[in-house]
Amino acid sequence: MATADFEQLSETYLTTTTETVVYTVPASTRAQLNSIRIVNGSSSTVFVNAWSVSGGGAGANANRLVTNFAIPPNDWRDLVDAKKIAHSTAASEIRVQALTANAINVIVGGVEFS
Questions:
Q1: How far apart are CA 37 and CA 95, in angstroms?
Q2: By the 8 A CB rule, do 40 and 104 touch?
C-alpha cells in the first residue's frame, strides 16, 4: 500500500467578503485534508463561514463547515471536520468567506492521491 505525507496544498489571502474557493481537488485525484488553518492578521476579531462543496455544487447549509466562526485578532484557529472533508473527490472545493476583507489567510493541508 502506498503512503503519502501530509503537506500544504494551498494558501489563500481573502481580499474580499465574498465566498472564495481556497482549495480544489485536482482532476483525476482524491484528497484527504487534515487541516484548514484560518489566520487573522488584523487587530480585530473576524468572523468566517466555510463550506465543503462536492464537485459542481454550491455553498449551502447542507455542506457548511462553520457559520460566523470567530477568529481572534492576530491569532489563528484550525478548522477540520473529518466527516465532510476526508477523501474528497476531484473538483470538490473548500470555500471560505471572511466577513472582513483583507484580514484572513487560509492554509489547507492534506494529501492528494491519484
A1: 13
A2: yes
| Segment (H or E) for 84 | helix 82-85
Q: Which grid coordinates are listed for 60?
A: 449551502
| Sheet of strand 7-14: strand arrangement | 7-14, 104-113, 30-40, 75-78
* CATH number for 102: 2.60.120
Q: Which residues of 50-79 are buried (b: 16+ CB within 10 A; e: fewer)?
A: bbbbeeeeebeeebbbbeebebeeeeeeeb
Position 3 pLDDT exceeds 80: no
Specify if 31 maps to a domain: yes
Inside any domain, residue 1: no
> How many domains, the chain?
1
Parent domain of 41:
7-113
pLDDT in tens, 13-50: 999 999 999 999 999 888 888 889 999 999 999 999 99
Query: Which uninterrupted H or E stretch holds 67?
Result: strand 64-71
pTM of the model: 0.89
